[in-house]
C-alpha cells in the first residue's frame, strides 16, 4: 500500500465540509458518503466465499480522485469485492428497501442505491474483460473473486485506480495514483489498455488533460497517441 503524499488529506472525510450545501438539506456529499459507509459495513459482515478475496467495499474512481485534489465530489462509486451479485443485491434490498435499482438487461451495469437528497451511489463488482481473438470486440463478465490490485490494474488511469476504505479510513493505492496526483501526472494503469476502458482511453486522456491540467506520462502518451490520429492531434493541441 502506498503511503499518502505530502499535502494529501489523511482521509476524504476531512474535506467533506468544503462542498456546497443545498438550502434546507444535509450536505449532499455527506449523504452519499454515509450511504457508502453503510454499504461497506454490510459487506464486511458477509462470509468469505473466495480463498484470495475477503468481502469488502471501497470507494473508488472520480470521488476519491477529486477528494485527493481538494475538489468537491457528490457522485460516489463503490466497488464490492468477494460477494456475488445476487447476494449483494439481496443484502442491499434488505438494508435499503425500495431504494435499489439493478438493471436486468445488463448484468455488469452498476447497482444504484438512493442515498438521499436526490443522489444515488453506484455500486459495482469487479469486471474481467476478454478480447475476442481476431475481433475488436471485448466481452465482460463479473469477477467478484479478483483482488483489489487486479481490479485497479484494469482501470484506465492510476488516478482513477485509488481505493478508499471507509471503515479503516485508509487509501489503497496499488497503481501509485496518489503519487501521480501529487505530481500532476496522468499515467495509464498497468492494464489500462486491456481493461473495459481500452476503447475510450484516448478520449478520456484528452478529457482529464483539459479538465485538470495533467501532464501525460511519456510512455502512456505514446500508447494513447497510437489509438487514433484524431486523438493524437487533440493531445498535441492540448499540450501546445
Gist?
Helices cover 33% and strands 19% of the residues.
Characterization of the model:
The protein has 240 residues and is α+β, with helices and mostly antiparallel strands. Helix content is 33%, strand content 19%. The strands form 3 sheets. A 7-stranded mixed β-sheet has the order 3-4-5-2-1-8-9. Strands 6-7 form a two-stranded antiparallel ribbon. A two-stranded parallel sheet has the order 10-11. α6 (201-212) runs parallel beside α8. The longest helix has 17 residues, at 28-44. It is globular and about 50 Å long. The model is unreliable at 1-28 (pLDDT under 50).
What order do the helices and strands follow? HEHEHEEEEEHEEHEHEHH
Number of strands: 11
The radius of gyration over CA amounts to: 18 Å
Count the helices. How many?
8
CATH superfamily of one domain: Beta Polymerase, domain 2
Structural class: alpha+beta
SSE layout and pairing:
Elements: H1 28-44, E1 56-60, H2 62-68, E2 76-81, H3 85-95, E3 100-101, E4 111-116, E5 119-124, E6 127-131, E7 138-142, H4 148-153, E8 163-165, E9 170-172, H5 177-183, E10 185-186, H6 201-212, E11 215-216, H7 218-225, H8 229-239
Parallel strand pairs: 2-5, 10-11
Antiparallel strand pairs: 1-2, 1-8, 3-4, 4-5, 6-7, 8-9
Helix pairs in contact: 6-8
